[in-house]
Amino acid sequence: MAPGGSALKEVLESNSTGMDYEVKMAKVEVNNSNKPTKSGSGGIGKYGMHSNNGVYELLECPVCTNLMYPPIHQCPNGHTLCSNCKVRVQNTCPTCRYELGNIRCLALEKVAESLEVPCRYQNLGCHDIFPYYSKLKHEQHCRFRPYTCPYAGSECSVTGDIPTLVVHLKDDHKVDMHDGCTFNHRYVKSNPHEVENATWMLTVFNCFGRQFCLHFEAFQLGMAPVYMAFLRFMGDENEAKKFSYSLEVGAHGRKLTWQGIPRSIRDSHRKVRDSQDGLIIPRNLALYFSGGDRQELKLRVTGRIWKEE
């Protein structure tokens, strides 16, 4: 829950820059005969590669231990490291302490060009093999890459597959879990004028065997204070497009409705909010719906989720 969000009550009425780096040293024998295969995971190392293959160890940066891509730098003694770490170590070789200069290791770059490697998410289900220099581009969009925790209101660094994140949301963030594809929530907040920028992830719904996150936010849209409710799908965008949802809020013979496609949790809740892809309720109208002396927010938000044929 974001700062300022603790007063919201939900009532459910239904369902370093220094030089000290650990340098990984290894005796390497260049051998191209042990290429990775699609089957099996035995002997697979950090990148889904065969850990006994000297070529891949040769391509591993001794500072960050990530695979190196052009420009690959080397010192006068032949020790290599990636371009990012060249800056981190202040242009000094972390192995022999010689000045690095601007020497490119063109031979190693050429060797890498001839390799075929598996996706780093091989152990999560991706069994495709790619040319070395195509691997990174694929991994940025690989459908098997881990998801980031979708909890709104904190910068949670937990990643994992969907079942792992569902358990994490329930146990660590104490998010309510509900079964069903329809919902009816009443949100009560005293002193609503004090809430200018807050976010809550109120509920996760298990519907059609998939999970959906219901969010409720208070923020400034231009100069106007507004509330916004929206749904995110725990899965990829192409799967999210198979579903639709509607939200409705109202009272006293008036109502606002929203219908749309849930956004994938690949998109952060802030990205969804900033795109205004949800039910937006101006605060004055929210207080009108709340009735009374307009000193307390009492919003009833109803909705449903359905699967597109």
Characterization of this structure:
This protein is of the alpha+beta class. It is elongated. It starts with 8 loop residues before the first strand and ends with a strand. The strands form 5 sheets. Strands 9, 11, 12, 13, 16 and 17 form a 6-stranded mixed β-sheet that branches. The chain has 2 domains: 54-140, Zinc/RING finger domain, C3HC4 (zinc finger) (Herpes Virus-1, 2-Layer Sandwich); 147-307, Sandwich (Apoptosis, Tumor Necrosis Factor Receptor Associated Protein 2, Chain A), CATH 2.60.210. Strand 11 and strand 12 form a beta hairpin. The longest helix has 10 residues, at 162-171. The protein has 8 helices and 18 strands.
Key attributes of the depicted protein:
disordered N terminus; Herpes Virus-1; single chain; 309 residues; Apoptosis, Tumor Necrosis Factor Receptor Associated Protein 2, Chain A; 6-stranded mixed sheet; alpha+beta; 32% strand
